[in-house]
Amino acid sequence: MLLLVSAGYFVSVWAWGLLSPLAPLTRDTAGLGGIGQALVVALPVLVGCLGRVPVGALADRYGGRATFLAVLAVSVVALGILAAGGHRSAAGLLIGGALLGVAGTTFAAGVQVVSGWFPGAGRGVALGVLGMGVCGSAAGGLTAVRWAGAYGMAAPFLISAALLTLCAVALAVFGRDAPAGPREPGRLRAALRLPITWRAGGWYSVQFGLFVAFSVYLPVYLDDSYGMPAADAGLWMAGFVIVAVLARPLGGWLADRMPPARPLSVSLAVLAVAAGIQSFRPPLPVVAVVLLAMAVSLGVASSATLVRAAEGAGPSLVGLVTGLVTATAGLAGFAAPVLMAFSFSATGAHGPAVALLAVAAGTAAWSAARKGR
User: Fold this and answer.
1) DSSP helix/strand/coil, 42
2) Which domain holds residue 346?
């Protein structure tokens, strides 16, 4: 099940992030300005994260497998709309992007499935393996622009839809929920009363805001700040995501062997320093080092946060709490690229926005060190 769900999450994230590497191409054809482009990039992120609350609750009620399959079906429909012509207009991109955001909700269903099959000490590593599905956005960054140039703008959407269909068939045929069966219905009020829901939501919000700013929005950022071509920027985006993904099992392993607050607070502190350096727009060789440090820290912090949240939630609420935590982060993921675009529009530089993200990371590191135990 871990392999099936991780593969499905990988392809879902691939589809979920397609509008980011294609943004420089759709900007002219759809007549988008800087803020409009940022909204198109950020909207799937917002929908995907906010949608994790109902999806997590449904997974607790009906089982992760059935919920996962339903999300995959909606995602295929969204890709079909974009391929059929939605990518040619601002309205089509916004409508298609909103529907495509559903692909991002697979994470909440996946966490419910994985937590059911790995209830003990191996949960951290298992969640880290699931989290490696974020590498799907790197696959999109590497392929989307090239496929669009070679076969037309509809090609990335059609290929992703075909892969999602294959994943859905495999999960329907071979997938099973944990032997205990579907969880009891998640109780929203009980989940909201848990302190860990709000603390983990704050920590994850900072991480996700930085992740979106320097992965999903990275091609736009590198174009605006360094004049980097779209294809090269896509490679940088892919590299950033791959490193962050590979660091997730490390974060889960550390969280299994020590209090999760320890790797969480240290990685958040590194993020604060790295973002602070990047706010001064250093030369590209320095940017490469900064992005490497940020990617590793984001991967470690992500898994450590989810392990801590799962510990505090308990088995009957893990899907719902995970949905709430990641939904809260979705607001930050939506705000980060809009903040970056507004900063560049108002000042001609992204530095002020990056500096604010650095301050947020420092505050989260302090909170995790004090309240994460």
Assistant:
1) helix
2) 2-371
